[in-house]
Specification:
This protein is an alpha+beta fold and 261 residues long. 32% of the residues lie in helices and 33% in strands. The longest helix has 24 residues.
């Protein structure tokens, strides 16, 4: 991106742009109206406002990101511009500006945001909660989690986590979580029943976790993992077991046997 850096000068009184270095969008004697013609409509007001603030000496410098239409590509490209007021040229009131093409950077940011949004949507649809566990703080940080009232900045202690687990499953859960408390380099995987204030009944959940971050001595300092609500799958399995049991009971009652070929 450094290669696409260029600069220009804007004559406040003539309201014209001229190139200083590189290949800026503003060519020789380009008017403000010509610039606005290829500028994204939503960027008109911010640019005019910044130029006005510099002209009126309300500020001496400023920066802005603008979108200019590229006729060849048939799309807008993003440019980062830093501007400053200058009186250097025979007392003329000038605005000196730089222009840096940051389109690829913005596209990468947009793609990252889209991936995060898709990931969150997929997790929501599949009843999956993502969590981190800080070994030193002994706290959980959860995302999209009813355990912490869906507040990602609200940390959850191990005791608070165990409180939403079914009493009959707490011993199993506590044994599995002890490895994280001790910072042991091992994965966890167990199923338990969980009920938060947002649930009417106990929900069967599968909890998995893996070491994610290590300290200087090689010790685990952070785990990351997922908790998936598998209640529907559990119910289907139970119904399947019941159906199979009834079939076997029926066959035994009537003296029939079942076979496949």
């Amino acid at each position: 991106e450094a290669a696409s850096m260029s600069s220009w000068v804007y004559d406040v009184y003539k309201k014209t742009f001229n190139p200083l270095h590189g290949d800026p969008i503003a060519k020789k004697n380009t008017t403000l109206d010509q610039i606005l013609n290829i500028l994204h409509p939503q960027d008109h007001e911010p640019l005019i406002q910044l130029l006005s603030q510099l002209t009126n000496k309300e500020i001496l410098q400023g920066n802005i990101t603008l979108r200019f239409y590229n006729e060849e590509e048939k799309q807008y490209r993003y440019y980062e511009s830093m501007m400053r007021l200058s009186f250097e040229h025979f007392g003329k009131l000038l605005i000196i500006g730089t222009q840096l093409d940051i389109t690829e950077r913005m596209q990468m940011v947009k793609k990252t945001q889209e991936l995060i949004a898709k990931r969150e949507l997929a997790m929501k649809v599949n009843d999956i909660v993502h969590w981190d566990f800080n070994v030193q703080m002994q706290k959980f940080e959860s995302y999209n989690d009813p355990v912490n009232d869906y507040a990602s900045d609200k940390l959850v202690s191990l005791e608070e986590y165990l409180n939403v687990i079914h009493p009959e499953d707490r011993s199993l859960a506590n044994d599995a979580l002890q490895s994280m408390l001790l910072g042991q380099n091992m994965n966890i995987n167990f199923t338990c029943r969980i009920q938060t204030k947002y649930d009417d009944t106990w929900q069967y959940c599968n909890i998995t976790g893996v070491p994610f971050e290590f300290g200087e001595a090689g010790e685990v300092i952070r785990f990351t993992g997922f908790r998936q609500n598998i209640s529907k799958l559990h119910q289907l399995n139970e119904e399947l077991k019941e159906r199979n049991y009834k079939m076997e009971l029926t066959f035994k009652t009537v003296g029939m046997s079942y076979w496949d070929y």
